[in-house]
What we know:
Blueprint: H1 2-17, E1 24-28, E2 31-34, H2 35-45, H3 53-75, H4 82-96, H5 103-115, E3 119-129, H6 136-154, H7 159-164, H8 174-177, E4 180-184, H9 191-199, E5 209-211, E6 214-225, E7 229-238, H10 245-263, H11 268-275, E8 291-292, H12 301-309, E9 320-322, E10 325-335, H13 340-353, H14 358-371, E11 375-376, H15 378-381, H16 383-388, E12 408-412, E13 415-418, H17 419-428, H18 438-460, H19 462-465, H20 467-496, H21 498-507, E14 513-514, E15 517-525, H22 528-538, H23 545-552, E16 560-568, E17 583-584, E18 588-590, E19 593-603, E20 606-607, H24 614-636, E21 639-641, H25 643-646
Antiparallel strand pairs: 1-2, 1-21, 3-4, 3-6, 5-6, 7-8, 7-10, 9-10, 11-12, 12-13, 14-20, 15-16, 15-19, 17-19, 18-19
Helix pairs in contact: 1-2, 3-20, 4-20, 5-13, 14-18, 20-24
Amino acid sequence: MKKISLILLAFTAHFMAIGQTDPVLMEINGQAITKSEFLQIYLKNNPNPKYDKASLDEYMELFKKFKLKVIEAEQLKYDTIPKLKKELDGYKKQLSNPYLVDQAKNEELVKQAYDRTIEEVRASHILIRVESTASPADTLAAYNRILGLKSRIEKGEDFNSVAKSKNGSEDPSAASNGGDLGFFNAFQMVYPFEEAAFTTPVGKVSEPFRTRFGYHIVKVTDKRPARGTIKTAHIMVATPKSATPEEISNAEKKINELYDKLLKGEKFEDLAKDHSDDPSSNMKGGELPPFGTGTTTRMVPSFEDAAFALKNDGDISSPIRTDYGFHIVKKLSWTAVKPYEDMKKELQGKVNRDERAKKTQDSFVSKLKTQYNYQDVSSKNGKWFVKNLDTTYFIGKWTSSNLKSDKPLFMLDGKAFGQKQFAEYLMKNYRNVKKDINENVVKVQLKNWEKEAVLAYEESQLTKKYPEYKALLNEYHDGILLYEIMTDKVWNKAIKDTVGLKSYFENNRENYKWGNRTDAVVYECLNQSIADQVSKMLKNDTINSKHVLEVVNKESELNLRVKTNKFDNEATPFIQGRILKKGLNPSFELDGKVYVIKVNELLLPRNKEFNEAKGVITSDYQNYLEKKWLDELNKKYKITINESVLYSIGK
C-alpha cells in the first residue's frame, strides 16, 4: 500500500506541476512531449517503477517507438477517419461522465448502491408493455390494464396466478415462472425496477411504475443478507439440448462414477483434468471464476444454491443437474461483501454508467448555470418554433429551412445559444417525442436541448479544468491511432501480402523445421488390466480405435481415452525419451495411467512446408515489417531527447 501511495503522490504531484513547470522531455518532428506525459505512461505500465538510468533508458526506447508510430498516424491524417473519430468521441463521452454529475448527490447514490449490494431481494413482477413514444391514449390504456391486474390481486387472487393468466403479464417468462425473478441486488435490474423492489416491504405489492419496457407492478417475496462471493471448481459431464434419454443416462452414470472416486479419495483436480467436459476450466482442475455478490459472473440458480450450501473449503456436493449437464461442485473459498470504503470506487464507476446518474444531472446543470451566468431569453425568441412545427416533425421530415434569424434562446458564459442550434437539435431528436400540442413539444424539447448544451459546454472545458482528464483523453487518442496504423502497416499487411510472406518464408526456411515426430494412435488406460485388454484387441489389424472404445468403455466411460495425432517427440510427455517401433508397442505406466501406443509411422526431422508453419511465419513476418517500418520512421523524423530531464525523474 505504501508503494502505491507513493506512486499516486508522484503522479498527482506531476499533474499539479502542469502549467507551472513541466519541462520538455523529448521532441519528435518539432512536437514537444513533456516530462509529465512520459511519467504518466511510465507509471501506468510499471507498477513498481525504477528510476535508475538503465530502467529509464529501456522504457524511453519503447516510448520513442510508440510516439513515432502515433506521430506518423497523425501525419497520415488517421485522426480524421470517420470511424476513428466516432470511436474517440465514444471514449471521450465515457471519460467525461464522472465530471458531469453533482458529486454530493452522486455520493448519496453510491452509498445507496452499497446498501443494496449487502442485501438481496426476491421479487415477482407483472409487465404491461408500452413504448416510450406511445400516444397518451395508448399509455393510459396500458396504465389502466396494470391497475386492473393490481386490483385483482388486492381482492385476493394469487400474484403468480394473475401473472400467468390470460391477458396477464406480457413478460414471456411469466408463463413458466409466474413472474418470479429470483434474488437480485444492485445493478442487476434497470434502476426504476430496482428502486421499486428495494422500497416495497416483503409481502406487499408496489404501486404501478414505468420503465423503458412498460408498466410494472412488483411483489417482494423475500429479502436476505447478500451471500458474498464464492470461488468453486466443478467437474461437468455435458448433455447437449438435443441429448437422447440414453445419452443423458450415460452422462448421469459417468458423473456418479466420478463422485464415487472422489468419495474413495481420488483428487478432484485430477478427475476434473481428465474427465470434465468444461474446456474453460478442466485444465485448471475445474476452477471457475468467482461468482456471487458484486460479480459479473452469474451461475444458474441450482448451481449457485449447491455451491453456497457447502460449509467448508474443500467440501464437495453430490451430483446436481443443470441445463448444461451434470456437475459436482467443490468449494474453494468464500469472501464476505467488502466494506463500503473498499467498494466505493468500483460502485462509483457503476453509478456513473447507470441510469441513476441522470438523477444528479439536473442539480449539476443548475449549478453550472449559476457558475456561467446563465440568462434565459427563450420566451420571445422561441415562439417561431411554436408557430412552425407541424405533424411532419414526428416522422422526421420537418425542416427549419424557412428560419432566417438566429436570435439567442439563452446565454451561457457570455456565449449565445441560438435558434439555429435549437432547430438542428429538433431535427436530430424527433424520435421518442410524444405527440402533443406544439407549445408543449417545444417546451419539453427546449428544456432537453438546454440541458444537453450546458453539459456539452462544460465538457468542452474539462481539458482546461482537469489535467488528469486531458491525459486520459490523450492516451485513448494515441491508443486508437496506434492500433489502426499497426493494423495497416504491420498486422494486416503481413496477412494480405501473400507474395511478401512467401518470399520471407523462402529466405528463412531453415528457421521452420519439424523435429522427430510419431504418427500414432495412443490409448490411455485406467489400469494395467485394461491395457492388456486393449493390446490383445489391437493385435487384430481389422479392429479400429472406435471399436476398442465401444468395447472397453461399455461398463465405464472412465476406462479408456484415445488420442490420434502426429506427436512431437520432445514435447509429448508419454513419448519423450521412449524408443518406439512401428506397429503395436508394449504397454507402460506414466503418472498413474497405462499407455498402449500403436505407431503408424516414425517421422524424421524435415523442413516445414509453408502451410505447416503459416501462423509462426506470419508472426515473424509481422515483426520483420515492424522493424523495417520503425527504421524508416527513425530516418524520417528528427528526435531530440533531453537526458537531463529524463534522468531527473524520481529525484
